[in-house]
Structure formats: structure tokens, C-alpha cells
Amino acid sequence: MTPESDQPSPLTWIRRYGADLFAVGIGLAALVLSCVGRSHRVPMWLDELYSYNLLQDPSLSHLLKALGDGADGGLPLYYALAYAWTALFSLDELSLRLFTTAAVWAALVLVWMTLRKTFRFWPTVIAVSLVFGTSNTIRFENANVRFYGLLLAAVALALLSAVELGVRERPGR
């Protein structure tokens, strides 16, 4: 156990990570604004309606059985998490699209963490901004009632894990 004096003070912590938190916060806010803006302009399309209809199921076990019977090509984990999300929030279009945005948030944070292990602040800001801000695919999927945001977060987690293992498992001389 380390003594309390070894713990960084809140001010030290803010000085060390404040710029990172601010930059990530701007990215997360931009994703939400993008989702809300698109949701008010664009109605649900066919694939989103598949997800929406499945999430109306009164029973999670029945929903998962329907997935097993080929009701959709979506991931069971996505539907289980989205089902819990609708229980906490609602089943309306914006709420479901914000669930996807939350998954893209997780991907952004994981990519940020991965890059910051190797790169300084500004290269990380530029890389994350370019990837998450200019990719039409990410911007489109950010505001969709589909599982691609969760898939992006899973890939970002795999990338972080691979980098962690690569750092820890470096061969010696």
C-alpha cells in the first residue's frame, strides 16, 4: 500500500490530464451534437427499423431467440445492451441513436488512450479529430440504430489490448 503522500493532488492530476479531458470532452460533445442533428433531419431507414422492431419485444429472452432464428444479423450483445438502455431511457428514435453514440464515445476514448501511450497531445488530437471528425462512415453510423458503434468500440478495445500486450511482452536484448 502506498502512503497518501504518494498520491497526486487533484491539482496535479488536473494539470497532468486536464488538456486530455478537455479534448476528449469536445470530441464526445461533437458526436452527440452530430447524432441529435441527424436524428431531427433523417427518419429511420430499413435496417434501423429492424433493430427498433426487435427492441420492442417484451422479453429479452424472446428477443435473443428471435435473433437465433435469423430475425437480424445483429450481435446478441448489442441487443442485450440496447434492451437494457431502453429500460433505463426509452424506446424512441433519438434515445436508440444516442445508445449507438455512447458506443462510439467508448471507441473514441479507447483510441485516445491507445494513442496517448505512444504519442504526445497534439498528434493525438489531430489523429482522433481526423478519424472521428472526417470519416463519413463513422459520422453516419454514430447516429444509427445499429450495432456498428459497438463493433467500433470492440475493435478499439482490441487495439488497446494489442498495444498493451506488445508493450508488456517486448523481448529483451
Largest beta-sheet details: none
Radius of gyration: 19 Å
Shape: globular
Structural class: mainly alpha
Distance between the termini: 32 Å
**Percent range for helical residues?**
over 70%
* Overall strand count: 0
Order of helices and strands: HHHHHHHH
Strand content: under 5%
Average pLDDT for all residues? 90
Number of helices: 8
Unreliable segments of 5+ consecutive residues: none
SSE layout:
Layout: H1 10-41, H2 46-55, H3 60-68, H4 76-88, H5 93-116, H6 121-134, H7 136-142, H8 148-168
Question: Could you explain the architecture of this structure?
Answer:
The chain has 173 residues and is mainly alpha-helical. The protein is 75% helix and 0% strand. The chain contains eight helices and no strands. It has helices at residues 10-41, 46-55, 60-68, 76-88, 93-116, 121-134, 136-142, 148-168. It starts with 9 loop residues before the first helix and ends in a 5-residue tail after the last helix. The model has no long low-confidence stretch (mean pLDDT 90).
